[in-house]
Amino acid sequence: MKKKIIPVLVAIALICVVVLVTVIPKILDRYSYSKERADLTEYFECEGDEARIMHQDQLLADRALVRDGAVYFQYDTVAAYMEDRFYYNETERALKYTLPDCVETVFLDTAVIIKTVPDLTGQGTTESETLNHTAAFEEEGTLYLWAYYVQRYCDMNYALYGGGGEPYRVQIFTEEDTVNTATIKKATAVRRLGGIKSPILTDVAAGDEVVVLNRMETWAEVKTKDCVTGYIEVKYLENEQEIRRTTGREYTEPVYPRIQRDHKIVMAWHPVMSADANSTLDGVTANTGGLNVISPTWFYVAGGADGVSINNISDASYVARAHGKGYEVWALAEDMTLSPDLYGILSSSTLREALEIQLVSAALNAGVDGINIDFEHVSKDCGVHFAQFLRELSILTHKNNLVLSVDNYVPEGGRGQYHLEEQGIVVDYVVLMGYDEHWAGCSEAGSVASIGFVERGIRDTIEIGVPADRIINGVPFFTRIWSTNGGEVTSSAVGMQAAKDWVNNYGVELMWDEITCQNYGELSSGGALYQVWMEDQESLQVKLNVMNTYEIAGLSAWRLGYETADIWAIIAAYGNS
Predict the structure, then answer these.
(1) Is 426 left (phi over 0), alpha (psi -120 to 50) or beta?
(2) Is this prediction's pTM over 0.85?
(3) Residue 380's pLDDT is what?
(4) Which helix (H) or strand (E) holds 145?
(5) What is the 3-state secondary structure (H, E, C) of 274-319?
């Protein structure tokens, strides 16, 4: 009997050995934690002196550079996530930042900041400050800014991690936010994916704090202090809470001064094409009511890359007469009549400053109260230079107690080069030309300023970031009479009375159009279709109602002399509302 049992026991023993040798290790392997470590260089996709950037809790595609222990951000990264007021002039190899009362300049490959307080002599007062590292440099066509230098101008905090064989990464904070955090209960690993077999990215110790990005049933996506984002088992987390996170810096945002009136602006543009035309002031204002600002077209910009000048037809006696009527005078400077090379002027620091000085000096000599910039030929590539022109000009106008207003197209059709948000910070009033919805070159007839067009212009400008109390909406005193004949569309711009005379002379029946909020009429004659969307007392009242709804700063009208007398009563009522 014993002889029969022994072989059975041996067989069982062999089976147990096989199980121990083959099955158990597989079971243990299945449920054991992988010790494989991920390649962080491959994970962060950077090497050498490159650094990945973590903005808040988002890993950016942008790269920074680390030189001599200093972090350098790309110019585009700075503009997108930290501060977009830096102005770079590639030709001059100069980087400028405009503060409320001065301009600070660094030239590439230097560590010196030159602070200039501009004045009307063109000399200004300057002082310099030497930094510990080069402030900015260019490499392979990319501009880099030292992080500490950037931090000088914005509420940004940063920390560098890595090195010593690990890839560099930079954590930046630029805003307050709310995040979920947790404390590590026991030392463990952060893995690339949620699973015990996923490679280890980094280790965390008991007491470390992590940001919980996404909490699931057994795994949580977390971010460590040194910018590693991965997965950790929920059982290792404790003290989970929602916290308010700040940049961690004491920073005071610069306050750009503003000249603001305590009443609604009721302005009208007065086209003055020659010095002799200044005598028309009394005639064009004879029937006005509620007007408190007049803007004569006095400064005509001329020149280009070789030099800049203004054709100045201002008249001090005009200003005296206007003041006697209770009007402020905001002299208009324009870029259309003399066809200047605006890019050539504004892209040169020397010529830009010369234009700024000429404009302010001319305004002061004439005794006006403000300057109205009406540059309508700002090209896409000129936009950054135009924005810098307004920043610098605002320093001089505010030092000399001149109101600075700027005329703009409504923000549609890709006109971002006018930088409305920046205007809303550095200039006193942002003026929308709330007309020319359909203009002389249009291929179809339509309203000059339908109510939808007007409201969108105001609403979109506010959404861009311009405060409502800085917005002046331009309204038209003109109407277009349209002709469509054989597919050819033409129009003529006429004043309110001329439009009424045309309607009466041809017996055109007007009907109120609820879509445009205008009186519409049409006439077929000689194979042509004539159409008119009237600008009159009724259409203007609807526009004023919308402007009141948005609580903007006021109105400006193009142009004096085109209106009928009956509109001034409702304008005066608007100004007093």
Answers:
(1) alpha
(2) yes
(3) 97
(4) strand 142-146
(5) CHHHHHHHHHHCCCCCCCCEEEEEEEEEEEECCEEEEEECCCHHHH
